[in-house]
Amino acid sequence: MLVVRSKGAKKLVVIAVQRAGNGISRAYARQIENAGVKALTPFFEDHIQIKPQQKQMVCDRILP
């Protein structure tokens, strides 16, 4: 349950969490004016990747 104090001005914040294994590796947050597409798009472009990363394996020796 989230309890918010009614006193004072409130700000709207968008949060993104990057998971790694069973834990959290990074978290990003930004204050926005509204929850519209124009306000959310820059945040997504900066912190969320559309295509999954390709993992590359590097081998430094040749195996028979």
What is shown here, in short?
The chain is α+β, with helices and mostly antiparallel strands.
Structure in words:
This protein has 64 residues and is α+β, with helices and mostly antiparallel strands. It has a domain at 12-47. Helix content is 17%, strand content 30%. The chain is built from one helix and two strands. It has one helix at residues 37-47, and strands at 12-20, 23-32. Strands 1-2 form a two-stranded antiparallel sheet. Strand 1 and strand 2 (23-32) form a beta hairpin. The radius of gyration is 19 Å and the shape is flat. The model has no long low-confidence stretch (mean pLDDT 76).
SSE diagram, text form:
Elements: E1 12-20, E2 23-32, H1 37-47
Antiparallel strand pairs: 1-2
Q: Which regions contain 5 or more consecutive residues with pLDDT less than 50?
A: none
Query: What is the string of SSEs from the N terminus onward?
Result: EEH
Q: What is the structural class?
A: alpha+beta
Outline the biggest β-sheet: 2 strands, antiparallel
Distance between the termini: 59 Å
* General form: flat
Average pLDDT value?
76
DSSP, total strands: 2
Adjacency order of strands in the biggest sheet: 1-2
Percent of sequence in beta strands: 25-35%
Q: Into which percent range does the helicity of residues fall? A: 10-25%
Tally of helical runs:
1
Radius of gyration: 19 Å
